Every structure is written in structure tokens, then in C-alpha cells.
Amino acid sequence: MARTIHDTLGVADRAMHADWSDDEIPEVIASEMRRNWMRQQAIRDGERRLRRRGARSPQPVDPERVPIIVEPGRNDLFHAIDVEDMREVLRCLPPGSLDGLQEVRLCAHPGNARRRTRPVDPLTGKVRNELVPGWYSPSPLGKYNPRTATIRVFGWFRDGEDPGPLFLYLKVDQLKTLVHEAAHHFDHTFRKGRHRWDVNDKEKHEDWARRIESDQALEIIAPVVERRHSSRCEELAQWIEEHAGVAIDPLLILCLAETAFLALVRAAFAGEDRDAARVACARALHHVGGNDEARAIAAGVLSRRPEDAGALAVTACILQCEGRDQEAAEDLIRRAVAADPTCMDAWDVLVRGHAMRRKWEQAAVACEGALSQVPAGERPRWYFISTLAEAHLHLRDSSGMEADVARMRAWGDRDAARQADVHLVLASSWSEQWEKAFSLASRLLAAGKHGDWKDWLVAARFEAAHRLGRPEQAGRLAEADIRALESRAFTEEWGRRIRRHVDAAAPR
Asked: Can you tell me the distance from the alpha carbon of 383 to that of 325, in angstroms, rounded to the nearest whole number?
């Protein structure tokens, strides 16, 4: 079936000037109009490209012959890669993925500054993002121009001369940028050159390029760097072992856990406490699945400082996530909180452990404990506020829920206020106030402003409508939607309740 988009300025003008009960509805309509206009323009651009090119496929490109141009540099511009680094990576890309590519450029970013609160490059006016003292990253790191089929990889700015342990990090970073922009080229040339509704969905295309970059970092970039710069890799491995306290594959940490590496580098550059840097490194490694290395680093810290709250928290979090011994994890966390009541990472693990095991009363107490330790004037972690609200929902604590909703609204963030709206819907549904739940859920769904929680609102409306004997107003709740509710600790009981009701109402 053919689909068309026919939003015009006249349609938008009438919608914006109509009388609405909710002042934000015109904003939602305008946003949707803009998205539709962008889709229209993208489809027209795609049509023009197809007509210019005709039925011909993009010109085949030999990676050996792709022009790689190094633009004249500046004294403060630094490239960690050279032409042969780039050529070697291009050789390893899947056959045909470079077809149609015209050239690759290694250059400085020419953009202008938008914010003046950070250092600005004196020549380009571009905001400098300081990685470590004296080293500044370009933003963005690279760019693909679909009109000229050109990839540009931007260099780093520096005040210092020797990047030290940063050298291989900068090299891997620039090569990851190269494969990221090559993914954009392939996406634009072979995937967007067709009639699609989402041709201008930038976030979706960016997610796809990031996924390709992540996959090819270990498959392509790591072997190339190890092959061409083995001595540098050995030097960095020794540096990491000295600063982390354990041996870690340098290319593994650069490709998959750069945050962990930067925690060590920044501490070294600033002369900060080495054990604190090691804990930060261990936490970052754990977040990407490097549990063996994270556990070893934390153990090294604990061998010298047995009551280090951060190291205890990382060790407990690993135990929790691996599902090995929840009781041992809780014992470690309670030691951490006793040693340092202000360690928010320890409170985070304690709250998460209770929530994972559906111990809502203990989760609520832990959230209150964490919030009580937040220094005056500082924002608490949102996780504590949202989990406290979830606990109060399960405990049917109406006064607690009212306080949670007030705290969410006082947060001053639009998403926080919208999550407060959703929790009010759930509170009505879970306390069997069906008419109120149906009305609130229907209104929020109609406004279209609560997309992140749409599944919950759809489920609340569905259940409330059926309980009220109005199935024609329930909408549709698929089996996959019910399974999604059942898979999450917070909504598992609710999903099972909806399933029981659906099964009981099914014709036999």
C-alpha cells in the first residue's frame, strides 16, 4: 500500500491556532509537522539522487586507491594516525562497503563556537573540549558529507608536546571515527537510497553507525594497531599494569572501555589518589562486562584498604550482576555504607540489590538512607527517587507516593514531571481506581508527550477499560507487551495480573 505525507504550512497554522484544552498540544503538533516535513524533504532528496544516478550501482572503489588527503596542519594540531594506518583499516572493511567513496581527509575542524564558557580555539572559534590538561578533542570527531561522498577525520588540539599514554588512545579514537563515518557512507549509499519512511531519522542512523564502530573496533582496528605499533602496545600495557595494579589488554580497554582507561590517565595527569582512580577504572570495566579485570583491581585496592567503600561497592555489584551470592553482596555493601555513608555508589548497589529481589520495604528504606546523605544544595541521583516511587507503589503507600510525585515535580526537569504523571496513573491502576486510571492514561496517551512510558500507559488503559466493562475502549495489548511487563522486577506482578485477567476473559 502506498503511503504519503501531506502536511503543509496551512495544516500546521490551523492546528497551532485551534482551541486546545492542553497548551502543550500545539507544540506536539508542530514537532510532528517538522518531522513530517523533514521526511518529505529526505524522500525528495532520495528521489533526486536515484534519478541522477539512474539504475547504476555506485562506482566500485579499491581501498588501495581511495584518495587520502592530509591537509596542511597547524603547530597545535595533532594527528595520532597517518595515511598507512587509515589505508590498512580501509583494506579490512567488508568488500564493497566503500563503493562510491570519493576521498578521505585528515584535517582540523573548521566550525564556530556556540558556547563561550569553555576554552575556544583562537583560529576556528571552535569550543575546545579538554580531555586531560593540555589536550582538546574536536567536536564532532569526524564528518561524512553525502553530497561529495567525502569522509573527514578531525585532529586533536594540544598545548603540550608529548601525549604519553594517550598516544594509542588518540590513534584508536581517530580510527574508530574513520570506520564510524565509513558506516555512514555505506548507510547513505546503500540503505538510504530507497523509499523509506525513516530516511531522515538521524538518531537511528547514528545508532547504527555506533554499532558498526563498536563491532569493528575489536575485529579490525585492534589487530591493525597491534600489528603496526606493537612496541607502543607493550609500553602501554606496562603503564596500565602499573597504574591499574593488574595486567589488562591495552587494546581491549581502548576499544571497549575507554572510560576506564581515561580514569587512570586523568588521575595520573592530575596527580590524584591512585586507589580512587583504580576504583573508577574497575567500575567502568564492570559496566562493559569486564568483570574479571574489575574484580582483580578492586581486590588490589581492598588488600591495602580493606574498608574502601568504592572498592567494596564494585565487588558487591559484580556479585549481584553475576547472581552468585546476593547475601555476600549485601554484607559487602553494608560494610561500605558503614565505612562511608556518603558513598553514593554503595547506596546505589544496596538499593538495586533490594529492587532486584523485590524487597520493596528494604528498597524504600535504602533509598531514604541514600537521599538523607546528599549534601545540601546538591541534586540526588534520579535512580533513588524513581526507585523510591516504585517501592511505594508496591507497598500501596499513598502518602509516600504523594511525596515522591511532589519531589519529581520539584526536580525542575520536564521528563521528571512526566514520569510523575505516569506514576500517578500506575498508583490509580494498582489501587484499582479504574475510572481514574483509564481517564489519566487516555489523556496522557492523547497528548503524546510521554513516549518513554507509552507501554505502561497502554497497559494501564487496557486493564482499566476491561475492568470497567468497556473493552472497545481498551486499545490493543500484544502478547509481547505483556511479556515485557513480566520481565521487569518493577512491573512483573502487574504483568501477571493482566495476563490472568486476559486468560480468564478469553473465549473457551
From this structure: 23
- Residues in the chain, how many? 508
Please give the share of the chain, as a percent, with pLDDT higher than 90: 62
Neighbours of 256 (CB within 10 A): 19
Beta bridge pairs of residue 105: 69, 152
Write down the H helix ranges in 123-229.
Answer: 166-186, 202-216, 222-228
Domain termination site, one of 167, 200, 228: 228
Let me know whether 137 and 183 are in one domain.
Answer: yes
Q: Are 477 and 459 in contact (CB under 8 A)?
A: yes
In order, the DSSP letters of 82-134 are -HHHHHHHHHHSPTTTTTT--EEEEE------S--SS-B-TTT-PBPEEEETT
Query: 69 and 215: one domain?
Result: yes
Same domain, 42 and 116: no
> Which residues lie below 8 Å from residue 244, measured CB to CB, with a gap of 6+?
264, 278, 281, 293, 297
Split at pLDDT 50, 70, 90, the class of 84 is very high
For residues 418 and 478, membership in a common domain is answered with yes
| Rounded-to-5 percentages of helix, strand, coil across the chain | 65, 5, 30
Q: How many CA atoms lie within 13 A of 18 on its CB side?
A: 15
Number of domains in the chain: 3
Query: SS3 of 70, please?
Result: strand
Over residues 320-363, the pLDDT tens digits come to 998 778 889 999 999 999 999 999 999 999 999 999 999 999 99
Residues 17, 143, single domain; the answer is: no
Q: Which of 228, 262, 285 delimits the end of a domain?
A: 228
Read off the C-alpha cell for 192: 538510504
